[in-house]
Every structure is written in structure tokens, then in C-alpha cells.
Amino acid sequence: MAIVSPSLLAADFLHLESEIDMINNSEAEWLHLDVMDGSFVPNISFGFPVLEAVAKKCTKALDVHYMINSPERYIKQTAKLGAMMMNVHYEACTHLHRTIQEIHDAGMKAGVTLNPSTPVSVLEDIICDVDMVLLMSVNPGFGGQKFIENTIQKVQRLKKLITESGSKALIEVDGGVQGETAPRLVAAGVDVLVSGSYVFGAKDPHVIIKELKEL
Length: 215
Ligand code: DX5
Ligand code: ZN
Hints:
Elements: E1 3-6, H1 16-24, E2 30-36, H2 48-57, E3 61-67, H3 75-81, E4 85-89, H4 96-105, E5 109-114, E6 132-136, H5 151-165, E7 170-174, H6 181-188, E8 192-195, H7 197-200, H8 205-213
Parallel strand pairs: 1-8, 2-3, 3-4, 4-5, 5-6, 6-7, 7-8
The structure holds D-xylitol-5-phosphate and zinc ion (ZN).
D-xylitol-5-phosphate (DX5) binds near residues 9 and 141.
């Protein structure tokens, strides 16, 4: 059984209320929220005014993914939303250990995200301090991109690091997760599937969420 975290980036922003209703009524456990700053990634998505509105309406655990430089600037504001998980990029944090501690002190779970070109080995000294590792299976910034095949081996390497270190970190994958890639990811050791266009673009998103969950 995988945890499913549909990515709101692929939702119809003109009808956010009904999209959140759909998520609330679905079997998804989490909602994935992609924040982009136009600097760490070449795109801008949404910020706190939208996050606050979504947080008020959404009954699922909020899985916030910051694709921004120096995300530690927003720890308090993120905690105030009631977010369950705050994911920060390894590449965007100068003092990652401190940032993880501050996320925990603010009452949230802490996730570390790796870009496709960042090796799992950089996590060796932090793996026991994090609640989750988010592996990007596309270059962050846009939905609907093609899955990078190397992610499967990366998941296997991460699983090995987690097991050998005694860490309890979950493995989440984000980008190009759909009917063909999802089963292979779960077989490789993934715990949480983020999926944007595959879920929100579906005729019946409930069926897709159920299908992903049952993997
Ligand atoms: C990409 C985002 C993803 C995105 C995934 O930068 O982090 O969460 O929404 O979209 P799909 O599932 O369409 O690849
Ligand atoms: Zn994401």
C-alpha cells in the first residue's frame, strides 16, 4: 500500500474549491503543494495567499514542497498553515541540519528533496534526522514531464542507506508518476507517490488515486 499525495499544481485553478473537495472525498492521504520562486526553479507557482485558502478547506495532510532558495525563511509561516510535512531542497539550504531542526521545533515533519543530479550519498550524515526523502524524478519546475529512468536505481540506493543506517525516513517520488512508472517505483521501495497530471487529468481521479494506493 502506497501513500498517495496528489499534486495540486495540475488542478484546475479556476475551480480550486471543487478540486479540493474531490481530494477530500478521495482515498488520498496527503495533498502535495508545490511552491516555486522563479529563482531556484525557472517557474513561479503559488504562495501563501493560495496556501492559506487551501489549508482552510483541505482535510488531508499537507505535504508542502518548497522549490525556493533559503526555504528556512518560511518555516514559521508554513507551521501556521498546519502543514504536516515541510520538504526543502538539499540544493537550496546552506545549513540543512539547522533547517531540519527548526522544522521539527516548529512542530512539522521534515523532508529533504534531491534534484535528479544530486546523489543519494549526500544524505549519509542527515538520514537519521529526516522524516522523509523526496527524490525528484524530473527536473523541478513543471508538471507533466517525462520520468527520469535513473530514479529507480536511486530509490534502491536510498532504501539501502535507510535500512543500513536504521533511519525511519519515508521515500517519496515526484515527477512523471503514472500507471507505468508507479508500480516499478513501489517495487523499488517507494512509500509515497506524488502525482499531478495523471490524477487531475484523469476522467475519474478517484479511480486513479485508488489504483496508485493499492500498489
Ligand atoms: C514538479 C513538481 C511536481 C509536479 C508533478 O516540479 O514538484 O509535484 O506537480 O507533476 P506530474 O505528476 O504531472 O509530473
Ligand atoms: Zn512537488
